[in-house]
C-alpha cells in the first residue's frame, strides 16, 4: 500500500499501531489503519461414479496444468455458493454438493482453502474461459505429476482413499511451504 | 475506497472491469483493480469436563454480552494458530485443540467463521484487554439470552447436543440475516 485509500496521502508507514501487537499500514495524515487479511479460496471436487472432474488451466499461474475448480470467494456469497460459481465459471459444471470436504491453510501466501465435495448432475460440462479442457479421470488416469497445486493434490488423494473406505470425512491441514510433489 | 492505494488518485469508480462480471473499485488513472474479499474469523470453543469457557465482552459491538474467544485471522498464521492466539488475547487460556468444529458463512457481512473445539489445559485463564470476565459454564448456567452473536449461540448449542451423543461432528451453515434468538 503506497497511498492511503481514505485520504490519498502518501504518508503511509508500516508500523505497529498503539494498542496493537503487529505492524499495519498506517496513515499518519488521517490516522486510518488499513488491515490486510487472508483470503478465502472456495472450490469443489466434482465426481461421477468412480471418476473426478479436473480442469486444465488456460491461465497463469500453472497454465497447462490440471486442477479442481476453485477461486477467490466473493463478498455477498456463501462459501458453498462461491464453490458452485467457480465450478460453473471454469467448467460449466452442475453439481449437487455433499458437504465440506477439505480445509487447508496456506499461511505463507495468506490463503485459506474451503473445498466441497459434490456429484455432477450431468456430463454437460465444458471449458469456461479460464480452462483449456475439462475431463473426468479415474484414479489411475489422473495426471498426478501435472496437478497444479499441492492443496489440490492432497484433496484428490484424500478423496480416492476415502472412496476405498466408503466413508468421507473432513480433511484439514496446513501447507507451510512450497511442497515438491 | 475513496483514493487509489497504488497511485493516490481520486479517480476511483465502482464499476465492472472488462472481462469481469461484478463491480470492483477501479482506478481510471493507473488502471489498478482493487478487490475486496470476505474476511475470516477464527475462534475456539474451550471446554473442561462438562463446562465451556465464555468471555464477557469489554468492547463494542455487543459490549457486556458473552462470547467464545474469536477474532480476525491475521496474515501469516494458520486458522488454528489464529484461534489459539485469540484465546490467549481474550482469555489468557491455554488450549489443546481437538479439531475444527464449526464453519459458518455470514454473507451479509462478508465473513466466514472457523471455530475449533479444544480442551483447556488448566484453569489459569483471566480476562485479556478485550474481556471483562472469563468464566466456565455448565449448559444450564450458560447465559443464553446474553450470548453476543448467533454464530456463537449455534456453536454452543451444537456442542452441548453433541456432548450428549458423545460424538462431535463438524457443523456447517449459513447465517443469512440478523437472527432473533
Ligand atoms: Zn489517510
Ligand atoms: Zn491508481
TrEMBL record, chains A, B:
Q: Which SUPFAM superfamilies match?
A: Nudix
Asked if Iron is a keyword of the record, the answer is: no
What are the protein's GO molecular function terms? hydrolase activity
Ordered alphabetically, the record's keywords are: Hydrolase
Q: What region holds the Nudix hydrolase domain?
A: 23-160
EC number(s) recorded for this UniProt protein: 3.6.-.-
- Any idea what this protein is called? NUDIX hydrolase
Upper taxonomic lineage: Bacteria, Pseudomonadati, Pseudomonadota, Gammaproteobacteria, Cellvibrionales
Amino acid at each position: 500500500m503506497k497511498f492511503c485509500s481514505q485520504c490519498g496521502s502518501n504518508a503511509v508507514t508500516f508500523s505497529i499501531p498503539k494498542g496493537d501487537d503487529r505492524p499495519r499500514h498506517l496513515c499518519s495524515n488521517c490516522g486510518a489503519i488499513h488491515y490486510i487479511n487472508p483470503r478465502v479460496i472456495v472450490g469443489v471436487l466434482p465426481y461421477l461414479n468412480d471418476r473426478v472432474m479436473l480442469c486444465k488451466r488456460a491461465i497463469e499461474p500453472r497454465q497447462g496444468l490440471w486442477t479442481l475448480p476453485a477461486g477467490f470467494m466473493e463478498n455477498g456469497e456463501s462459501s458453498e455458493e462461491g464453490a458452485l460459481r467457480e465450478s460453473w465459471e471454469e467448467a460449466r459444471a452442475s453439481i449437487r454438493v455433499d458437504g465440506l470436504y477439505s480445509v487447508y491453510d496456506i499461511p505463507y501466501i495468506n490463503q485459506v482453502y474451503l473445498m466441497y465435495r459434490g456429484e455432477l448432475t450431468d456430463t454437460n460440462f465444458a471449458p469456461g474461459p479460464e480452462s483449456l479442457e475439462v475431463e473426468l479421470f479415474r484414479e489411475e488416469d489422473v495426471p498426478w505429476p501435472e496437478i497444479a497445486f499441492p492443496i489440490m493434490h492432497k484433496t484428490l488423494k484424500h478423496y480416492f482413499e476415502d472412496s476405498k473406505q466408503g466413508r468421507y470425512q473432513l480433511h484439514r491441514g496446513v501447507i507451510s511451504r512450497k511442497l515438491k510433489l
